[in-house]
Design goal:
The chain is of the alpha+beta class and 182 residues long. 23% of the residues lie in helices and 42% in strands. The chain contains four helices and nine strands, in the order H-E-E-H-H-E-E-H-E-E-E-E-E. Strands 3, 4, 5, 6, 7, 8 and 9 form a seven-stranded mixed beta sheet that branches. The radius of gyration is 17 Å and the shape is globular. The chain starts with a helix and ends in a 9-residue tail after the last strand.
Length: 182
């Protein structure tokens, strides 16, 4: 039932059929039944693993599974000046138009997570990444990425309300060397 609702949600955005990879959503929840009600709680460890997997897929030029996990009202703060996007629809529109021949090499990724309650999780990734340009130029940065996840209520095709983990905020930064006065 949850998978059908997500397929419907993906189809609303007219994503390429082969990119509708939904298996990433399922392990991010702990599903139990209490008093006849299905209870879904965010699984911090699984969300951290999911985040790393989605980011690696993103750097393999497969951004669709990553973008599918964003909330409709999410915020994206990119590493360059002026890189701010509000809302998943705007993100999807930008990536649909984004055609490039870039490739990437991602080094060892450090993944840390913290959670204040059962319905949120913050995941911080840090990793070196090299962008390979078609002209042969390579640019290396040490990137930090913070994803703030939160449970969002969704209504499936049967009218039943369910909670799904969604990325609410994505903040990417490329730190510069520390100044001796810092």
């Amino acid at each position: 039932m949850v998978v059908k609702a997500l397929v419907k949600r993906l189809n609303e955005y007219d994503l390429p059929e082969q990119e509708n990879d939904l298996m990433f959503v399922l392990p991010s929840l702990i599903i139990t039944e209490e008093h006849g009600e299905v209870v879904r709680k965010m699984n911090q460890h699984a969300i951290a693993e999911l985040t790393a997997e989605l980011v690696l897929r993103y750097y393999e030029n497969d951004p669709w599974p990553f973008l599918e996990h964003f909330d409709d009202e999410s915020l994206w703060y990119g590493p360059a000046e002026g890189q701010y996007i509000k809302g998943r629809k705007a993100m999807l529109d930008i990536w649909r138009r984004d055609e490039h021949d870039l490739t990437f090499t991602v080094g060892d990724m450090k993944v840390e997570s913290t959670s204040a309650n059962a319905s949120s999780c913050n995941v911080m990734l840090s990793y070196p990444v090299v962008t390979h340009y078609p002209d042969g130029e390579d640019i290396s940065v040490n990137q930090r990425l913070l994803l703030c996840w939160g449970d969002r209520s969704e209504i499936d095709e049967n009218g039943k309300r369910t909670k799904q983990p969604r990325i609410l905020v994505c903040h990417i930064s490329n730190p510069h060397p520390k100044h001796e006065d810092d």
